[in-house]
């Protein structure tokens, strides 16, 4: 049985991180995966201050996943897209150690990652959130069932993100996962919230969690 170890990322991890990135986002849409230059800049920016905001998961000595966070001054009411929240993925104008929000930039697992790798990364994220004492955690979610719903049922995007089943659980499979994980439904719709994402028709939803 493979064990998973989570540790702070290093610049030497860049090559395997890019393999994870490609496996996770290469098929999402053109431009969805970060370039090597942007990922390197994130590594340098997010590992300078204690406790660090870029962590990798290792199994058998190989990087099999990562999570990238950023402290930011961005508030939920003014967040309009993933691009806006991350300065187009660079974090240059959005990263701020004094900000009261912890923003989830990206989380990914590689093709051969052991079962539970994502859970290990999410646990570390929550530990960092508590340790840093940030007021909230938020991230821009994909809506991977949206394009299919539009094409087969004619559902309007601004309606889709709010659709729930008889138990009040979101019908979108990814929003459902986040609901089961964090106990919250999306805060608001993000039109053109992540343009490269084909399955989400380029849209997204903002999820805000107030209590770690």
Gist of the model:
The protein has 212 residues and is of the alpha+beta class. The protein has helices at 14-25, 36-46, 82-86, 117-132, 146-153, 157-160, 173-182, and strands at 5-8, 54-59, 62-72, 101-109, 136-141, 188-190, 204-209.
Describe this structure as you would to a colleague.
The protein has 212 residues and is α+β, with helices and mostly antiparallel strands. The chain has helices spanning 14-25, 36-46, 82-86, 117-132, 146-153, 157-160, 173-182; strands spanning 5-8, 54-59, 62-72, 101-109, 136-141, 188-190, 204-209. The protein has a seven-stranded mixed beta sheet with strand order 1-2-3-4-5-7-6. It is globular. The two termini are 30 Å apart. The mean pLDDT is 95.
Q: Strand share of the residues?
A: 15-25%
Q: Taking strands numbered 1, 2, ... along the chain, how are they ordered across the largest sheet?
A: 1-2-3-4-5-7-6
| Poorly predicted runs of 5 or more residues | none
Q: Whole-Å distance between the termini?
A: 30 Å
> Structural class, please?
alpha+beta
Put simply, the count of helices is 7
What spatial form do the alpha-carbon principal axes imply? Answer: globular
- Gyration radius (Cα, Å) is 17 Å
Main beta sheet: 7 strands, mixed
- Helix content estimate: 25-40%
Mean pLDDT over all positions: 95
Strand segment count: 7
Order of helices and strands: EHHEEHEHEHHHEE
């Amino acid at each position: 049985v493979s064990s998973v170890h989570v540790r702070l990322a290093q610049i030497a991890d860049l090559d395997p991180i890019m393999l994870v990135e490609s496996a996770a986002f290469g098929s999402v849409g053109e431009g969805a995966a970060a370039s090597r230059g942007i990922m390197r800049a994130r590594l340098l920016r997010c590992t300078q201050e204690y406790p660090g905001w870029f962590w990798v998961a290792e199994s058998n000595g190989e990087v099999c996943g990562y999570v990238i966070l950023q402290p930011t001054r961005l508030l939920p009411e003014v967040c309009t897209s993933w691009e806006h929240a991350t300065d187009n993925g660079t974090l240059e104008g959005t990263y701020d150690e004094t900000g009261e929000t912890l923003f989830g930039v990206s989380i990914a697992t590689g093709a051969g990652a052991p079962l539970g790798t994502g859970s290990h990364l999410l646990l570390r994220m929550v530990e960092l959130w508590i340790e840093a004492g940030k007021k909230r955690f938020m991230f821009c979610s994909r809506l991977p069932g949206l394009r299919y719903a539009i094409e087969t049922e004619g559902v309007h995007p601004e309606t889709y993100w709010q659709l729930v089943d008889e138990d009040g659980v979101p019908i979108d499979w990814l929003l459902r996962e986040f609901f089961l994980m964090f106990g919250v439904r999306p805060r608001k719709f993000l039109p053109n919230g992540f343009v490269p994402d084909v399955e989400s028709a380029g849209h997204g939803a903002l999820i805000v969690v107030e209590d770690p």
